[in-house]
Amino acid sequence: MHSPNPIQCVVPDYVLVEIAKRGDEADRDAALSTLAVSTTLRSARSQAEAARSAAGTPLVATAGLREPTMDRVIRDAKTGVDTGSPIVRKEGDGRVGDPAVDEAFDHFGMTWKFFFEVLARNSIDNAGMTLDGVVHFGRKVDNAFWDGDQMLFGDGSERLFTRLTKSLSVAAHELGHGVIQFDGPLVYQGQSGALNEHIADAFGVMVHQWVHHETVEEADWLLGAEILAEGVKGKALRSMKEPGTAFDDPRFGKDKQPAHMKDFVVTAGDNGGVHINSGIPNKAFFEIASALGGRSWERAGRILYATLGHEQLRRNADFRQFARLNHRVAGQLFGVGSTEAEAVANGWASVGVEI
């Protein structure tokens, strides 16, 4: 059985594997070191989930009555891997001068405000969950992770990736996995896993657009544009506007994301292609938002968020099932036959998913 909430990372393992195959000795060391951290975290996460399932997770009956208040803590692992490292900045503290600490703290705040002010959501779990982040996680780790409870940021090797805390879209993407975990969850395998990645990408991009006051037309629709190291041939980790064009580097290989079902990738790797085939729903969302114009979070984003939280969303939903529910939700929110419902139908049709 696949856990619905495994370790989720912004840099796919298949990219790191390509780097290990293609890069020089230093590149291979960095990639293999990052892959080792991913494997360790997945093992720890599986054990924690098993223990939590056996013990049962108590519900807090009064959680919904709490005053919505942002609560952030940032820990410094000092290149170690202790997720319970000492807190170096908490809510109410001033800047500490460490860029990683202050960037993570700021990006957590921007993401919290987006979910609260735009979607009326009280933190990741909608019940005031503390946003807990660990910076300087591991030695030159080329990744950022959501482990089900907190975010972990590597510093990057500076050969492949820079400090992972630099990117708001990366932080929002990973925290978005937390929202999906509590509202979905979508099983992290195959098409449901690709939908999981897609929604996290959409959150990451929308938070960036919201903070920078960008319209659909003004935005670049890129995820992780800030974290590619100097000399890497690429513009970001992923492009929602043009899946498959984010990078093409001798060490990384070429971006494998398809933009249409005719190019759907069947693979046993990447949990059945969750980071690869997410390009298809990503492109559909871009087309929906573009057809509606204005600000992505106002209509396209609202429809997507309501679809995620809909009681009829199956945890193992495929693209067509999700698209049909997405269209139904658009009709419920804006009216059957509305411009919004038509945009959703056309957006999915444009990537080969008929509803």
Automatic annotation (TrEMBL):
<keyword id="KW-0482">Metalloprotease</keyword>
<dbReference type="InterPro" id="IPR023612">
    <property type="entry name" value="Peptidase_M4"/>
</dbReference>
<keyword id="KW-0479">Metal-binding</keyword>
<dbReference type="GO" id="GO:0006508">
    <property type="term" value="P:proteolysis"/>
</dbReference>
<keyword id="KW-0862">Zinc</keyword>
<comment type="similarity">
    <text>Belongs to the peptidase M4 family.</text>
</comment>
<dbReference type="Pfam" id="PF01447">
    <property type="entry name" value="Peptidase_M4"/>
</dbReference>
<keyword id="KW-0964">Secreted</keyword>
<dbReference type="InterPro" id="IPR027268">
    <property type="entry name" value="Peptidase_M4/M1_CTD_sf"/>
</dbReference>
<dbReference type="GO" id="GO:0005576">
    <property type="term" value="C:extracellular region"/>
</dbReference>
<protein>
    <recommendedName>
        <fullName>Neutral metalloproteinase</fullName>
        <ecNumber>3.4.24.-</ecNumber>
    </recommendedName>
</protein>
<keyword id="KW-0378">Hydrolase</keyword>
<dbReference type="GO" id="GO:0004222">
    <property type="term" value="F:metalloendopeptidase activity"/>
</dbReference>
<dbReference type="InterPro" id="IPR052759">
    <property type="entry name" value="Metalloprotease_M4"/>
</dbReference>
<dbReference type="GO" id="GO:0046872">
    <property type="term" value="F:metal ion binding"/>
</dbReference>
<comment type="function">
    <text>Extracellular zinc metalloprotease.</text>
</comment>
<dbReference type="InterPro" id="IPR001570">
    <property type="entry name" value="Peptidase_M4_C_domain"/>
</dbReference>
<dbReference type="InterPro" id="IPR013856">
    <property type="entry name" value="Peptidase_M4_domain"/>
</dbReference>
<keyword id="KW-0645">Protease</keyword>
<dbReference type="Pfam" id="PF02868">
    <property type="entry name" value="Peptidase_M4_C"/>
</dbReference>
